[in-house]
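cron nightly-structures :: item 1 of 1
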Amino acid sequence: MAQTSLTKRQNSLAIASEQLRVLESNESIPSFNQILASHGQDELVAHGIDVLQINVGKVCNQTCTHCHVDAGPDRRESMSEEIASECLRVLKIAQIPTLDITGGAPEMNPQFRRLVAEAASMGKRIIDRCNLTILLAPKFDDLPEYLAAHRVEIVASLPCYLEENVDKQRGNDVFRRSIEALKRLNRLGYGQPGSSLPLSLVYNPVGFSLPPSQADLEADYRRELRSRYGIEFTQLFTITNMPISRFLDDLLTAGRYEEYMNKLLNAFNPSTLGGVMCRTMLSVDWLGNLFDCDFNQMLELGLKPGSPKNIRGVDEASLRVTRNRAIATGKHCLGCTAGAGSSCQGSLQK
């Protein structure tokens, strides 16, 4: 690893360590396991591995204020061919049905198309977590056809159906380009009624609130996007802004950190615990390190002792342990268990 990459890695570890310290040292909020116990709930344990979610790096063509990955055009962290090969090997030997590719803008990683093609040849369900604007970028504008040809499901961030709100969170002109990309995907069949090409949209609150009812908001999105732009989509996912990375910095800067954490605590919903994504997911970072979820990954909160630490060398014996592992938790987990719950597939209570 080049010296500059090593320095960036050390800086990322230091930032993650400090953010985890801030979260866990907040004495006004009990530990997550204490909260579970107070509701008569056991500590979280995995139920298997249905999804291998790989974060191929932090390189992105956008810089969004809510981004828990802290991705952007200036980042250089990117999954290598070796780690991509290890991911594909484990996907095959573990018979994991779904490959979920995220980033950054995952499509900017040189291994992205290989991951899609080989996973498709295995008959896997493939999800691309797409920011939409990358589909219009030079050298990437053939991606819509490539994704459609490989039957890749698209989960696309669109935090509002109003231009002002989207551009405030994601940057100038992002809304217009997102609408253009959605129209192109619709022309290929994505999101159309009865289509086998799912196009899911993702809503994150603008500001320090929790998401509203997913069903009600989906109806609003469908009405507004259809009437204003003629756009169709499959479903809407509402995702809570997690108190990590840029959003945690915003909370601290605004002096609203305690307020937000107490909002999550007061909205804790034990009925969401059965569906939290960490129970059926294994998360891999760009270096091959293993985590319970993408949020733990950003805090460098790895799997608990007894489970493998890196995807290199993972075999069937270690996978048996990993499928039933105890899950590492922290106070940020309140973000997934507040209100109707939050996961990579949206609200946990439909």
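cron nightly-structures :: done
The domain at 3-337 is CATH 3.20.20.70 (TIM Barrel).
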